[in-house]
Amino acid sequence: MSIKYLYDRKKIAVTYGEQKISYADVIKYVNYYIEFLDITKGDRSALMMENRPESIFSFFSIWAKKGIAISLDAGYTVDQLTYVLGDSTPKYLFVSNKTKKVAEEANSKLNNIIKIINVDELVLPTDYKIKKEEFENDSNDDVAVIVYTSGTTGNPKGVMITYENIKTNMEGVRAADLVNETDVILAMLPYHHIMPLCFTLILPMYMGVPIVLLTEISSANLLKTLQENRVTVILGVPRVWEMLDKAVMIKINESSLARFMFKMASKIKFMPIRKMLFSKVHKQFGGNIRLMVSGGAKIDKDILEDFRTMGFRAIQGYGMTETAPIIAFNIPGRERSDSVGEVIPNVEVKIAEDGEILVKGKNVMKGYYNNEQATKEAFDKDGWFHTGDLGRLEGKYLIIIGRKKEMIVLPNGKNIDPNDIEAEIIKNTDLIKEIAVTEYKEQLLAIIYPDFEQLAARKIVNIKDAIKWEVIDKYNVTAPNYKKIHDIKIVKKELPKTRIGKIRRFMLKDLIENKDENIDENEKKKIVEVPVGIKDKFDVINKYIDERYHKAIDLDSHIELDLGFDSLDIVEFMNFLNSTFGINLVEQDFVENKTISAIIKLVEEKAGKLVEKVDKNENLKKIIESDSDVKLPKDAKYGKVLKFVLSPMFRFYFKYKYSGKNNLEAGAGIIVGNHQSYLDAFMLNNAFTYKEMSDNYFIATALHFKSKTMKYLSSHGNIILVDANRNLKNTLQAASKVLKMGKKLIIFPEGARTRDGQLQEFKKTFAILAKDLNVPIYPFVLKGAYEAFPYDKKFPKRNNISVQFLEKIMPNDKTVEELVEETKNNIAKNYY
Questions:
Q1: Where does the Carrier domain start and stop, copy by copy (predicted)?
Q2: Rounded to a whole number, what is the distance in angstroms from the first to the last CA of the chain?
Q3: Closest of 518, 523, 599 to residue 563, by C-alpha
Q4: In CATH, which superfamily holds the domain spanning 211-403?
């Protein structure tokens, strides 16, 4: 039985901005476009353009001539398009002004075998008479479209989809009454992908559901389009829903009333009440949304739950290009957030022994075009199509575990789906735009593309530290050991993805190792010449970075992401610039100026001029020496009060002990040790007399002393506060002043409490101070405090705790790096 896919329904078929195009208009244009196609049944013709009415006319004109339509990615590069056209060899290619140049270059590489038709040059005659009023196919066994996979693991493959495959999907949607003629569907995803092609083009035209085409992809345009048109159904990929959910939830969390309403709505299951409570959100989405559908990739169930709590029917489905695309979807009213839904009619699903999802049915493709080997590999001897996804069936509900090829198998045998970790991390922060978790050197590593605007707004100088402690560490605290992130890599541009947002994971290793295969060869060869006007400043900076860090720079070099500067490096660099160019930069100047070109521009704005060059080793010395105006905390009285109050608890509850105090000599020195818990500072204070406490100064992170009360306590607890984004220079000066006064400085060089009981990286500040001021380092070892009071606990438990002071380390002729290493090694020997 054939499918009548296009006839006049006497209503609007497509809305595109201000344009309203009726079914009669679509039919007229399809008739006109046919005149440019000299093809017969089974011939292939392609279209490559942005979503617009002409893409619809092009597509149906190919079908009208009984041809096979190939909808191609409008974002293809010349090389990508050359490959796909060479593989599919279409007779014609419909393009727009935007895609014409790429198409012509690709065609030229193929000896111009394809006839290119630019839809922007086709003008429908005003008196045009149609020859045919309705269109249907000949046989459902015929190939209808060839859709090229997105190529997440290499070159794309052409999937041959029959009319029968498409019909099976449409019947599944109709049987569940998912969409009907009273709906209006939004088409925002590109038509080269099977999901939007079938469900925001073929299905609506077949069922008489008006389509609203999004003119441009942006959240502002999306909301405007929803408000101006009576859209009832939105189909999106997880990235769209993540973006919208984050925007809405940020606003809800800003208001205590909205948070209360959200909590209340989550306990009320009656959707009309939920909708009423969040009527403002519904109005923002146009006020008519009946159904939100997520597909194309796995979505975090919490996102669906958020939308449902606000009174939206949010469901997800599951499928593949090879299944045209649906395998299963949730039916409104009996949906499950943790499941992709129920298997559609005329389709069978079974789970293989290794957990892979296998499919058989009328929705499964005919095979891969021009690729018999790949087709054979996709099916087993019993005719089951192997999806490559892992899952399980719970009754009639299908649950996806992850993509077989994407699963990370750790050396300990644990299987991890990186998508789960990525979703968990990104939903709890506004500092990250994109994240990809991968295995690198047998550990989990997160590649992060930050939200640079948000970082600038928060005045964050040190990007890596901010993301490491504010984002990754918060995730690691509650994550199981095998799912913890061990390292991060910050990147300056978006991660490699398909057009619908799937990460091209096979490209991640090159990204980690700074091999970007996406860069055009001409781009790689292009060297940005330094303009004559700034060459003197560039050369001075280049010499400093080369001598100090042995790294080459160019104008686009990012001081953190390319050169690896930490907060201390930035302070040194700032002081070098101030001394060399006679200017007065402060740490906050480096919030928005992080590339060499931006820094040179900043130097010029400060009207600096070249002055006598300063030796690279003098930078921190100059900072440390100029400490006369720095104010120190007033006294240690609150530290003494707390020692008096807490001493009984340390003696009887923890059975606290200290040893090796005789290693501490009179006079200046830096006391350095491991950081285990909130108990650490109190443990140290209990080893000192009240008089000694007056001469001991702690360095602590400002993050923990934000309120006025806490700042007051720090001022009367001999605590010097460090803020890596604001006053690291002042902190260094305060620390040096303490040491010059013959007093002692207590530093936890890890910067934060241990999350797993292991020693972390030691920051080098203490070693720089010791070396420049020639004062001894006194290492100490804390034991038992991590077990007594781990990071994720709110109250300590009984456990033996102790402090052991080790023999001093003198700077002598040692380098800063040698001092850091020796101190850490001495602590490690006595700790483990």
A1: 528-607
A2: 76
A3: 599
A4: ANL, N-terminal domain (3.40.50.12780)
- Cα 518 to chain centroid distance, Å, stands at 19
Q: What angle, rounded to 10 degrees, do the helices at 618-625 and 728-740 form?
A: 70
Q: How far apart are CA 67 and CA 80, in angstroms?
A: 23
Phi-psi region of 710 (alpha: psi -120 to 50; beta: other; left: phi over 0): alpha
pLDDT attached to residue 610: 52
CA distance 401 to 420: 9
Is residue 417 within 8 Å of residue 426, measured between CB atoms?
no
Give the chain's mean pLDDT: 89
Closest CA to 696 of 739, 770, 746: 746
- In whole angstroms, give the CA distance from residue 265 to residue 336: 18
Closest CA relative to residue 619, chosen from 567, 558, 577: 577
pLDDT tens digits, residue range 271-281?
Answer: 999 999 999 99
Residue limits of CATH 3.40.50.12780 in the chain: 211-403
Does 390 score more than 80 pLDDT?
A: yes
Between CA 126 and CA 381 the distance in angstroms is 57
pTM of the model: 0.71
Q: In the CATH scheme, what is the code of domain 417-517?
A: 3.30.300.30
Tens digit of each residue's pLDDT (9 = 90 or more) over 599-619: 998 888 886 555 444 444 445
List the one residue out of 345, 312, 315 whose CA is nearest residue 327. 345
Query: Over 817-828, what HEC string results?
Result: HHHHHHHHHHHH
Q: Classify domain 637-831 at the CATH class level.
A: alpha beta
What residues does CATH 1.10.1200.10 cover in the chain? 527-616
d(CA 265, CA 713): 41
The class (CATH top level) of 527-616 is mainly alpha
Are 504 and 496 in contact, with CB atoms under 8 Å apart? Answer: yes
- Which two three-digit tokens encode residue 571? 């302070």
pLDDT greater than 90 at residue 726: no
Per residue in 350-363, pLDDT (tens digit) is 999 999 999 999 99
